[in-house]
Amino acid sequence: MKNDGYEGTLELRKLYEMIDDAAAEKRNHVRIVDESGEDYLYPRSWFDPVELPSSVEEQLGHLVSK
Length: 66
What we know:
A hairpin with a 5-residue loop joins strand 2 and strand 3. The protein has a three-stranded antiparallel β-sheet with strand order 1-2-3. By secondary structure, it is of the alpha+beta class. The protein has helices at about 20-25, 55-65, and strands at about 15-20, 30-35, 40-45. The model has no long low-confidence stretch (mean pLDDT about 90).
């Protein structure tokens, strides 16, 4: 992952929530909830998708909703 110019809002080697955004995908971007807690567009090439088991996704979703 890269964070060029965004060192304060993106930490290297950290998992971030990605929000589906068809318009962003058309422009090769992804919508990411960053360290600010808000979602912003970032270049897709900065991230590597990670498939998590559903049980882990459920646990992460539970932690985020608290």
